[in-house]
Amino acid sequence: MTDATQHPKLEELIAVLEKLRAPGGCAWDAEQTHESLVKYLVEETYELVDAIERGDREEMIEELGDVLYQVVFHSDIAAHTPGEEFTLEDVAANMTAKMIGRHPHVFGDAAEKAALNVQTGSDVSGMWDELKKADKGERTSVLDGIPQSMPALALADKVLGKAEKLGIIDAAAPGALSLGSEDELGGVLLAIVTSARLNGLDAERSLRSVLRQLQDEIREVEKDGGVDAGIIGMPAS
Fold first, then answer.
1. Angstrom distance (rounded) from CA 235 to CA 237
2. Nearest CA-CA partner of 136 in 88, 93, 90, 98
3. Rg (CA), the chain
4. Angle at 179 between CA 219 and CA 48, to 5 degrees
5. What share of the chain is helix, strand, coil (3-state, %, to 5)?
């Protein structure tokens, strides 16, 4: 069995990137910035999602490599940028500390584990939220930190999840539509987008507009320190 502490191929990848960006290396790689690489990071991430959804092992290896390369690339840029000057080791160290801190039920001492009594995934999720809230003390809303550039459907799911945890949306309430499968849901979503196109409407933009309104309502509820009855920002079923 290979020693888990040894990662020669990862070290080789780091060395390849360093050579490409060093004097005498590749001009294109040397010219890249964090900003110029964003589009590639987004593209590679979507390609990885496609590979995962297809269950294609070889493609997953390739696409995970592409995403990993982006992490290595950004770290190398930072290491040579005055004012940033962090490395891949710094990135890894930060994530290690974060994961250990967010999992006291695993890494804590026996007394801490017993006191937490974390048994289920739901328990872990609730504890994670509390620990994250403590770590991010500068945040004043559950919405802070949600990337608004996410695709509208993913953003909607994230925002609704936050509203649900606040008690603003009743998770047990029946939805406006009764759906039995993701295939059925996909058909409904496609029909909505098709109708939008035929009527000259932008489905992505319209969903974002409604989400902005819902987020404004959530912030108002937070500011008032209470939760109104019923579901806000949602059509009646």
1. 6
2. 98
3. 23
4. 70
5. 65, 0, 35
